[in-house]
From TrEMBL:
<dbReference type="InterPro" id="IPR036047">
    <property type="entry name" value="F-box-like_dom_sf"/>
</dbReference>
<feature type="domain" description="SPRY">
    <location>
        <begin position="163"/>
        <end position="291"/>
    </location>
</feature>
<dbReference type="InterPro" id="IPR050618">
    <property type="entry name" value="Ubq-SigPath_Reg"/>
</dbReference>
<dbReference type="Pfam" id="PF00622">
    <property type="entry name" value="SPRY"/>
</dbReference>
<dbReference type="InterPro" id="IPR043136">
    <property type="entry name" value="B30.2/SPRY_sf"/>
</dbReference>
<dbReference type="InterPro" id="IPR044736">
    <property type="entry name" value="Gid1/RanBPM/SPLA_SPRY"/>
</dbReference>
<dbReference type="InterPro" id="IPR003877">
    <property type="entry name" value="SPRY_dom"/>
</dbReference>
<dbReference type="InterPro" id="IPR013320">
    <property type="entry name" value="ConA-like_dom_sf"/>
</dbReference>
<protein>
    <submittedName>
        <fullName>Aste57867_634 protein</fullName>
    </submittedName>
</protein>
Length: 308
């Protein structure tokens, strides 16, 4: 007669998956090597999808539990039932919003303060006399290095894959306080900078290791105050995006590529997304929490799985 099963082994499959769903990935791995039965049960895709959602939410942003996760077709073809286990181990900290505290500390004065408007927007909240003084808000974290898991909202689902690339967008709206003056000419810029870039007194692309696309003239700047023609101008009502590719940066404008990819001037990271403002406009960041205006942005993540 077989000995009665005890502990976890006595649970049916559904109860077992419910219990171990609360464990971390390291403990799950330990369980999987103790017994052939456990090993088979902890490889269930739904268990690892829950682990992936939990880890992504802890390091980045919480995914809506009502929205399903859709795995990249390329990743699905290569890994089949192991996709979410691989994705869980590939989660890295990624930028998710603007870091207004960093800008305020760098300015050392309330005159350059930015206001966080949860969940994803920021607005200049300093003294009106400093309007036009060229202040920036940096993303809260640098872009991840190497292959990493990606999450981007597509309709009522999340697209998940592996990529070496990053894409984000910002949308520009009028100030909540319409009585506030606006500096002439109003300008919002978008770009990529290294960790040493000063967020006060400059715009992305003017100084240091930085590259920026400026809304007032549609030019790109790279470590120079002299820009080159690139794409359309942009302002209130527009959404602009930025791809950080392998040794290149490209921008989008209202869901369309604004221009060609530009060589990135440095290999020495870390690198951050940056928004420059000299007006009290509200700027909303999007790192995949909402559908992108660029319709094939998610496909760009998927396609990069081939080289990952």
């Amino acid at each position: 007669m077989d000995a009665p099963r005890r502990g976890l082994a006595a649970l049916d499959a559904d109860a077992f998956r419910h219990v171990v769903g609360y464990l971390d990935t390291r403990t799950l791995k330990s369980i999987s090597i103790t017994c052939h039965t456990f090993d088979a049960m902890v490889h269930v895709s739904s268990l690892w999808e829950a682990q992936f959602r939990r880890r992504w939410g802890r390091l980045n942003f919480a995914m809506d539990p009502a929205c399903p996760c859709i795995v990249s077709p390329r990743l699905l073809a290569h890994c089949r039932g192991r996709c979410f286990r691989l994705l869980t181990h590939a989660v890295r900290r990624c930028p998710t919003h603007g870091d207004v505290e960093h800008s305020t500390i760098a300015a050392s004065a309330r005159s350059y303060r930015f206001l966080a408007l949860p969940p994803l927007s920021v607005a200049f909240d300093g003294h009106d006399d400093y309007m036009g003084g060229h202040c920036c808000v940096r993303a809260n974290a640098p872009f991840p290095v190497g292959v990493h898991a990606t999450v981007c909202r597509v309709g009522d689902a999340y697209c998940n894959g592996l990529s070496r690339h990053t894409y984000f967008e910002v949308s520009i709206a009028h100030a909540e306080d319409a009585s506030r003056p606006s500096a002439p000419p109003p300008m919002v810029s978008l770009g990529v900078v290294d960790g040493h870039f000063s967020v006060v007194g400059s715009q992305p692309g003017w100084t240091g290791v930085s590259l920026g696309y400026h809304g007032d003239d549609g030019k790109v700047f790279c470590d120079s105050v002299i820009g080159e023609s690139y794409g359309p101008t942009f302002g209130v009502g527009d959404t602009v995006g930025c791809w950080v590719l392998d040794k290149a940066v490209a921008f989008s404008h209202n869901g369309v590529a604004a221009g060609a990819a530009l060589p990135w001037p440095s290999n020495q990271g870390p690198f951050y997304g940056l928004v420059g403002v000299n007006v009290p406009h509200v700027v909303r960041w999007n790192f995949g929490q909402m559908p992108f205006a660029m319709p094939n942005a998610a496909c760009t993540f998927m396609a990069s799985n081939a080289s990952a």
